[in-house]
């Protein structure tokens, strides 16, 4: 018995067993980043290639690289991919948590297969195997959906799985420093991300069909390696993992509905003066407000009535599931509702970000040397984001030196991201005005690129990376920076953040484009993208500055009082 224990302990502590899972996870990050930079970031060029519009069968819109659609349809495909990715992430997290949270390997298996299959399906569509155009469109729709499923959880689940493997080989399993583990994971993943981004540069220069096949094959190879390394992975103790879970059940939108319904049914009930009248496992999360009244965390005067959903009534009422909710469910619901004003302030920000994810690349392919240099602009955007997201950035160092400034740092990040989003729209507006001026007055020929350097787009790509890194990281840390939140709840909050910004932002972009038929015609050169950027600048300045100022003051004051 003792010898088997020592043998198992020796296997877990061996360098090969400790290093192999990490290296395999790096290959997943490498393939993911390769596909993102070589395919996903420039996917708009898959649907709208300006050189193919008149060179090859303009009536059928066949293509030199891929499939040419009208501008509105091309934007709809790309934004739908972003929206589905954000939505599927919430669904996948719920599935994982609903079954105990110990199925990361199985989920990663499925996601890698889905991503590889989706890329392969898009490659089939780009090869024009079928003569009918509607079949190509159907294949593309299927491919986009499958790619969205694969993209949705691959990066966050691989990060979580890497953390588990690193924690398993910590010297003291009883006292694991999560921040140290995450810092190690970020360094390893940053190395793999840089490698994938650099390899994407030569792959971007080839046409779409071999590019999609190559990225799909790389994804398939990493899947095989991941399967072969399965015996080396550390198996998580399900009993220990379950005992550390704070929430009784996974949080979903149905939880909010159930809590609100129970609170409405008990709206006439008197508010109790003792914690014994609440349905809870412990007495954590109770506070006395300014009027010495009992209140559940998080403290919010307008949401105190929701606390009644956790009040214990008579025996018959307790059996009625619609009238009784746990304290944890009430607390999570209140926290979600309390964050709604902040999330609503990000709607215009998400619209600007969605426009940048689509129109910036579309502007680039009309300029000189786009088939070679466009990928460098996306690398510039990534560098800009890492500059403000890295632990060595000035704002991160400020919070390490002055811990009390952490909340201020998060608010500063959000403010900075909002302001830069306005500046980003203004710069894009000015560049598009110049591009259209050259096109209309000097070079009105659609068969060739406009004699304007693609580096004119560098400032807006750089600002796009800055605004995304500042605002999204600030929102994430502001949202999950509370000790009362369970680990499961933090995962949902991160997914909700992405859905609010990327998902709803993409939906709003599609809605704005299709509701402004006079601004957006069949091609970019016929459209008035400059006016769209102008409207985004005006709306962003008005809504973000005024509305976010009010919300920031309210939330900051409340959080400081709570601390």
From TrEMBL:
Pfam families: PTR2
Subcellular location: Membrane
One GO CC term, this protein: membrane
Spans traversing the lipid bilayer: 73-95, 107-128, 134-154, 188-206, 212-233, 414-431, 499-517, 537-556
Signal peptide: none
GO MF term set: transmembrane transporter activity
Keyword terms of this UniProt record: Membrane, Transmembrane, Transmembrane helix
Top-level taxon in the UniProt lineage: Eukaryota
InterPro entries: MFS_trans_sf, POT_fam
Membrane topology designation: Multi-pass membrane protein
Family: Belongs to the major facilitator superfamily. Proton-dependent oligopeptide transporter (POT/PTR) (TC 2.A.17) family.
The name this protein goes by in its record: Uncharacterized protein
